[in-house]
Design goal:
The complex is a heterodimer.
Chain A: E1 2-3, H1 10-15, E2 22-29, E3 32-37, E4 41-46, E5 54-56, E6 65-71, E7 74-80, H2 81-84, E8 94-98, E9 103-107, E10 109-116, H3 130-133, E11 134-140, E12 143-148, H4 156-166, H5 172-175
Parallel strand pairs in A: 7-9
Antiparallel strand pairs in A: 2-3, 2-10, 4-8, 5-6, 6-7, 8-9, 11-12
Chain B: E1 11-17, E2 20-25, E3 29-33, E4 48-54, E5 57-62, H1 65-68, E6 78-86, E7 89-97, E8 102-105, E9 109-110, E10 118-124, E11 127-132, H2 134-146
Parallel strand pairs in B: 2-11, 5-7
Antiparallel strand pairs in B: 1-2, 1-8, 3-6, 4-5, 6-7, 9-10, 10-11
The chains are: A alpha+beta, B mainly beta.
């Protein structure tokens, strides 16, 4: 066994890893930073600008989804990211409208768009819902942050629940968030 | 500390969690890491405290304190990094420990302990120390956290 008494130079260590650069958007929810692939996001809008375009779901069984957003012919369910991840309640200011999905995500703020060197697999030690939430982990600004899985915000079962509550009945393909806008 | 190559079944690493000392077989221990930054993010895995970055790897960190001593580990923490098996895949995992660790050699006595995560007992001087079964420990910690 080896014993170290000095901290690792984390950045140097990570930077030697196999690189597969990817453009991501860094965003914050309740003081936690996340990354999402830039090409998974179609639009970023302020919640104020969408006030007239969002309709409340009267009897949503999912506390994290309270509104529907109409974008052209596409209906998006608006997911509160803080509630989705079990974080403290905040007042989201922005909506990420996801590309090719029937979901949009409420977040507190955007940090910036950047390029990450690689997405590292989530360790096997993580066995819970995070395996669906995240594609993996990234190293940004000396921090390890989760890279979210866009399709992980709502399951097929949740889409079905929401469709029932909203009085709609999207196809199975739509339920899985795979429709084109 | 002694290099891993010289460790045998009768070599153990003594670690401190809270006010108690425990032992792990030295063969599964890779490294004692200093108190580097613990990175945290939302998850639902019981007993996982976060991750550290160590030698090109993102290493998950387990907090065994609640199960072993009844409270989460706190204060300045070191990380005892050990090898775990997940089917065909191996993975390093770190346990939060309260201070520097020691090596010890001796024969582990089988222990008819009701706690599944205690593999046996090691005597060091006049002290009797529980030898932990890491896989059973983390399984127990997960079960307890979910109950």
């Amino acid at each position: 066994m080896s014993v170290s008494t000095t901290p690792d130079r984390e950045h140097d260590v990570i930077s030697r890893h196999l690189r597969r650069p990817e453009a991501v958007i860094l965003f914050w929810v309740a003081n936690q930073m996340f990354a999402i692939a830039a090409d998974a996001v179609q639009e970023i809008r302020s919640t104020d600008s969408l006030a007239g375009a969002a309709n409340e779901i009267e009897h949503s069984e999912l506390p994290k989804v309270r509104h529907i957003l109409q974008r052209g012919r596409r209906t998006c369910y608006v997911v509160n990211a803080g509630m989705h991840f079990g974080l403290p309640i905040t007042r989201p200011a922005l909506v990420l409208i996801l590309r090719q999905m029937r979901a949009a995500v409420l977040v507190d703020r955007i940090d910036r768009m950047t390029e990450i060197a690689a997405v590292y697999p989530l360790p096997h030690a993580f066995t819970g819902e995070e395996r669906r939430w995240y594609r993996g982990l990234a190293y940004v600004d000396d921090s390890v942050i989760p890279v979210v899985q866009p399709a992980g915000f709502l399951t097929a079962q949740e889409f079905a629940q929401l469709d029932r509550a909203a009085g709609g009945g999207g196809s199975q393909r739509e339920m899985q968030g795979a429709v084109q806008a | 500390m002694i290099a891993a190559e010289t460790a045998s079944q009768s070599s153990f690493v003594l670690l401190q969690i809270g006010a108690r000392r425990f032992a792990l077989p030295a063969v599964i221990v890779a490294e004692l890491a200093p108190p580097v930054r613990l990175h945290t993010f939302p998850h639902t895995s019981p007993s996982v405290a976060g991750v550290i970055v160590r030698r090109r790897r993102i290493v998950p960190v387990y907090d065994a304190g609640p199960l072993l001593v009844g409270k989460s580990s706190s204060g300045q923490q070191f990380y005892l990094i050990a090898r775990r098996e997940f089917g065909d895949a191996g993975e390093l995992g770190a346990i939060l420990v309260s201070g520097e660790c020691e090596m010890a050699t001796g024969e582990m006595r089988p222990e008819s302990d009701r706690r599944a995560y205690v593999a046996g007992m090691l005597t060091v001087g006049e002290e009797s120390i529980d030898v932990l079964d890491l896989e059973a420990l983390l399984a127990s910690a997960s079960t307890e956290a979910r109950s």
